């Protein structure tokens, strides 16, 4: 029979035990930090009580860049003692931002990241069975929301995955499965290898395993092409199993031809008199010679690297013919140079940003390495041009005249800008309208005009202006109108647009006050629509699929919704990088969706470390052409049924780009005609698979779990 009863504790928290678990919905809370706050005997009777279903901001607490503690007083009944292991599990859910957890004064776990669930195995010997225990949770909050926010914490009996970990890795041409166990146990490992392109099973193997307490076992298999490994460990003692899947990176796109091919946008806009900085994006064997017909007075092309430079005084649209020639042949492309006020960012920005890889460990050396690789690895031949330094370039103090200065990691910003410009690349910088940035560096508050001038002197072409420290100003002024969100961005707009160069104005305030409805009013070129992305499916799904469907009316040439930077290649937000935790299919989905959303395409990994798979993801000219399409229409989501979503956008050539995404945990066979009809496309003249760069039949296709079919559809029409 299942037990179900309620404990009422001295501190007033109500706990219920049902089906062998305890739920805790609130705890004692205090901002601050203290060495004895972890201890069971610490007197917290004066602390207030906060519930777990709302973050602490929503419960009236403001506590940025600081610590706070929750103390959960819990009677843990001996029914929860696992007979197999003697242990118990603290399942706390996600905590915003970083946390350390103690049980009766002893640390049992710590995790960084606001949307990562916390689940810790606690040794039975730490628990006071059938008596009151104290779970003390020390939380560090960067800015904004903090603490528990997702509802009840639970105390439960361990399951197999709490005691035995299974991880898969690709190493030296092999796939390795490592099992590590906290207890003595035995079971069977089964591995199924599947061809990802056809979904046919290639092989199935089984092996018996014995594990000592605290030991590891590693099995390995040769890594085949286009293969998915599904490894299941079935444990004899628990009678349970755990499964991990590793799909090897697979390249769908054929190599680019050796002859010149134009991969850049069909249009580039510049304000009258501003420097033209534009590199003609042709792939193909180098050396290459570049020519441009129709250039207006004041602009010239460097025939050796294809860099356009100079400036144009007269507003107008200048149709150009671009030509590139190498040993294998020659190609031309039509292009329009648009000169006018309000005419910058006519297609979404493509480039690189330092944050998702290096975060605060960024340096001029690392920035230069990525910029060099952008040129040498050929990403510049696909239109990537911005090199954006995120937070952590700022010195702790301003100069005597009040001007902002870089720290010792950036010896010469102007030289960096000059070098990038001479190669047709552009330099971006980061700051906050507050006194401090998110990373705790100096912000711009009170120096708006001076900073805009400094950035102009350095040759800055992109400003990411991040709310963070401004939260204090906002809180102090007691004005919560939309105008109070707009004010700091309006102020910077004035000074930025006074500069004699075009500075892409990127708002970063996580979508507050529906920024997409007023971003254009501060002449912003893009605005972040959400909080920070990370390299997990949960994050990609939330930011990409859940938060964007309503935003398509607000994007267009000159102003774009920004769902945050790319999390492909090596990321890590530190000096220590790792491969993105997104599977290859999730990465195809990520780039496909960002292309459909007309999103900023800012690469978040060090370009000098890019592998072939990542290069192919980022440098498919047909996929990028969707992102850079001159109509600038962001995709709408037309359908969301049974985990299959259909997103589509019209393109300037009269075709439609359509993404059919499978958000399910298993592959799904999708009828293309049926999926396209959801987007209102009924008569089809032709379909091109953009990743494979080949025309395909209107048939049925398997879409892998979390994967995509990205197609371009020529509609059949009656009169032409
Ligand atoms: C915020 C932004 C990130 C990054 C960091 C830098 O979190 O959203 O993109 O710029 O600040 O501190």
Structural class: alpha+beta
The best one-word shape is globular
Helix content: 10-25%
* Rg calc: 28 Å
Explain how this protein is built:
It is a single chain. This protein is of the alpha+beta class and about 725 residues long.
Task: List descriptors.
720 residues, alpha+beta, 8-stranded parallel sheet, 7-stranded antiparallel sheet, globular, disordered N terminus, binds alpha-D-galactopyranose
Short description, anyone?
With 720 residues, the protein is α+β, with helices and mostly antiparallel strands.
SSE layout:
Elements: E1 4-8, E2 14-18, E3 21-24, E4 26-31, E5 48-51, E6 66-75, E7 88-96, E8 98-103, E9 106-111, E10 117-122, E11 132-141, E12 147-148, E13 153-156, H1 160-163, E14 164-171, E15 174-181, E16 185-195, E17 200-211, E18 215-222, E19 227-235, E20 241-247, E21 261-262, E22 267-270, E23 278-279, E24 282-283, E25 289-293, E26 299-301, E27 307-310, E28 316-326, E29 329-339, E30 350-353, H2 355-358, H3 364-376, E31 386-388, H4 413-422, E32 426-431, H5 448-458, E33 460-466, H6 470-477, H7 482-498, E34 504-508, E35 526-528, H8 537-546, E36 560-562, E37 570-571, E38 578-579, H9 584-596, E39 601-603, H10 612-618, H11 621-627, E40 636-641, E41 644-650, E42 656-662, E43 668-671, H12 672-678, E44 684-689, E45 694-696, E46 700-703, E47 708-715
Parallel strand pairs: 22-29, 30-31, 30-39, 31-32, 32-33, 33-34, 34-35, 35-36
Antiparallel strand pairs: 1-2, 2-3, 3-13, 4-5, 4-6, 6-11, 7-10, 7-12, 7-13, 8-9, 8-11, 14-15, 15-18, 16-17, 16-19, 19-20, 21-24, 23-27, 25-28, 26-27, 28-29, 37-38, 40-41, 41-42, 42-47, 43-46, 44-45, 44-47
Helix pairs in contact: 5-7, 8-9, 9-11
